[in-house]
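To: structure subgroup
Subject: Chain for Friday's discussion

All,

I'm putting the inputs and outputs inline so they're searchable in the archive.
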Amino acid sequence: MLAYRMSMICVASLTALSAQAADFDVTVSHHSFIDPFNNRDWNGVKSVLAEDSVFHRANGEEVFVGPDAIIDRFSSTIGAPDQWNVKFAKLDSSSKLIGKDGRIVERGDFAVTAGADDASCYAGSYMMTWAPDDGDWKLQLLAWQDVEVTLDACQ
């Protein structure tokens, strides 16, 4: 009887996680990150990050763990409009995978413009992990690899 109850609890939990994963809207989640990022609203970006969030640039040496470390990194390197002025031009998910624990792992391509007049373009691939958190989705992992390309990639 106990085994039956345990299996029913597992089925109910997996069903709830599957339903929650079905509620994941990649466009809404991306904009909840991109809009505050592009507007230098660091509190807005922080509100999207999970408590155990991690940011890593594949061609960088450091890994930033936790919302405070990630926000410090972004704001100190690209925070002021007269500095790099990095903005996401596109974040396109090409595939996603729903984990057994309800997390969404997605990969795709991104493009950012940079410079005071958006004259530079950087593009590459990214991976994001989104975790369900009290009926909302939090960004748990952000990793990207970028390469300099022509401005066409940003359009």
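Points worth raising on Friday:
Residues 2-19 have pLDDT under 50 and may be disordered.
The chain is about 35% helix and 40% strand.

D.
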